[in-house]
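== Folding the chain ==

***
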Amino acid sequence: MTGKIVPPRSTATFSVVEGDLEVKRQAVVKGEGSPPKVVVAGTIHAEDDSIFDCSLSGDELDAKGRIIVKGDLEIRNGVIVDEGSLTVLGSMTAKKADVSRNLRVEKTLDVEEVDVGGHLEVGGSTVANDIDVCGMFKADGKVKAKNIDVCGSVKVWADIDVEDNVDVGGTIVVEGGKVNKVDVGGSFISKKPLSFCRIDVGGSVKLAGGSVGGSIEVGGICKVAGDLKFDAIDVGGVIKIEGSAEGAEIDVGGKIHTEGALTLSGALEVGGKADIEGELSAQKVEVGGSLQAPKVTVHSTVTVGGFIDTKEGVHASVVRIGTRGKVRGPIKADEVFVGRRAYVEDIEAKRIVLHRNARARNLRGEEIELESGCRISGKIYYTTRLDTDRNIRFTEPPEKVE
């Protein structure tokens, strides 16, 4: 096999090179045919500022410095660019690509593995098993990969399809698509509906309405621009859903706000405030601050430390109101426990307990217990037992009924 050498700062034209092709510094290689192309049987060696003014095909590309290919680049095995960058103005295919600085492909990129020390920019679609970038990964077309690992940021202006993991140190922005696991140190944004298994973000998450997935764990803020279906959400700060939400469980350190209904097969736990504009349905609800919803239906226990505001009321097995709590709207349950100095309106339950200095309007139950200092501004109906301490104030005498 006969190789070819292109001297420094010279120009050479080839169609086929039977052996290796060695291109020295600042040399230019042109191809033959339309469009022009050079086919190399062996390895292409290129030095700094080499320019291939054509499409290029070879077994391997071993380069150093800044390399430019003005057409397509087709490499059967590996591409190595040491101490430099590679720019391909057409499409690029290879088994492996290892570029120490930046890799820019104007059209499509199709590789098994790509490792870039700086920035990776792709103007068309990207297909790869593993994408490993130290700086920024930017793609204007669709991205299909098995794993993506980027130290800096990721911007994909089309659908993304990642089979296993997306691990990003900074920020990731995608148009939508499908991912398995996402682990992001900063923020994650999906502008269109996303299908996911797990999202773990240290800062903030923004999802498009119609997204469907498994678990979401966010250190700061989670926003959804529409409806959401999920398994579990754990947010340290705030959740805002501009639509309805359906899932298993939610745990929020600060506040949750939904503009539609919230339906959970498990528990809702909120450290601060829960503001649900649609109906709230859950297995269990525990809110440290306030709970607002048109209607609350809970299969097990509702525990609220501060304020409950409903129009159609709270329906649960057990309702617990904290000290100095306040309830606006009716309560219907098996058991209701009202904390000291708390205020409730109307209660209907099998068992009702008002602790010291609590106030209520109307009570209807089988067994009612009133500790000292309680005040009842409406009526009391009981069927089995009424226990009262001293200093109880009744507007009307309690009435035992069938």
Remarks:
- Residues 300-402 form one domain.
- The mean pLDDT is 96.
- The CA atoms of residues 270 and 287 lie 5 Å apart.
